[in-house]
Amino acid sequence: MTAVHPSEQSADVSETLAKGRILPVVVLDDARAAAPLAAALTAGGLRSVEVTFRTDAAADAIRAMSEDPQLFVGAGTVLTPGQVDEAVAAGARFIVCPGFSPRVVAHCQQVGVPVFPGAATATEIQMAIDAGLDTVKFFPAEQLGGVAMIKALAAPFRSVRFIPTGGVNTGNLRDYLALPAVLAVGGTWMVAPSLLAEGRWDEVTTLTAAAVNAARES
Ligand SMILES: O=C(O)C(=O)C[C@H](O)[C@H](O)COP(=O)(O)O
C-alpha cells in the first residue's frame, strides 16, 4: 500500500464541493431510502453527499447511493480505521470526521482516500496542517462562534479551507460562503430525519434547490 501524497487530499472532491458549496449530512436508518434520496438530492442540483456512520445502515446506504453516477458519496462520523475500510469498501470517495483523530487520518492517507477531519481549535488546525491536509470540517460551527470564529482562525492559517457544519441553514449559509476561507458548508437541514423517514422526497428536492440557489447568490 502506498501513502497518498498530501496534496491529493481532496483534488476531485474539493473541486466538486467548491462547485456545489453544499454538503448534505445524511443520517439514514433504512438503506432502502438511499436510492430515492440520491435522486432527490441530484434533482435539487447537488452532486455530493456525506452519509454518516451514526447508523448501521451507513455502509449499505453508501453502496446504494454510489450507484448514482452523478453523485460524489462520502462517509461521515467516521471514528475508527475500521470504519474507513468499511466506507471505502462500500464506495465512499471521501471521509469526514467530527474531530481530529491522528490514527483515522493516517489510515485514510495510507489507503489513499481523501479525509476531512473536524477541527474546532487552532491546535487541531495545526495538527491537520502537520498531517499534510489543507481542508478541515469546522464543527460545530455555530456553537463555536460561527463566521467570526472562522475569520479569526483563517487569519493565521492562510492556506486552510473550512467546511463549517453544525447549525448552518438556508438563513445563514450565505454569511459562511462569503468567506474566502470557506470551501463549502455542511448540514442536515435539507435532509432532516423526519423528511427521510416519511419519504418526503419532493421536499428534500425543494430544500436542496433553495440551498443551491442561495449558495449561487453568495
Ligand atoms: O455526524 C457527524 O459526524 C457530525 O459531525 C455532525 C453533523 O455534521 C452535524 O450534526 C450537522 O449539524 P446540523 O446541520 O446542525 O444538524
Automatic annotation (TrEMBL):
It comes from Micromonospora endophytica. It catalyses: 2-dehydro-3-deoxy-6-phospho-D-gluconate = D-glyceraldehyde 3-phosphate + pyruvate. Belongs to the KHG/KDPG aldolase family. Keywords: Carbohydrate metabolism, Lyase, Schiff base. GO terms for molecular function: 2-dehydro-3-deoxy-phosphogluconate aldolase activity. Pathway: Carbohydrate acid metabolism; 2-dehydro-3-deoxy-D-gluconate degradation; D-glyceraldehyde 3-phosphate and pyruvate from 2-dehydro-3-deoxy-D-gluconate: step 2/2. Homotrimer. This is 2-dehydro-3-deoxy-phosphogluconate aldolase. Pfam families: Aldolase. SUPFAM superfamilies: Aldolase. Its EC number is 4.1.2.14.
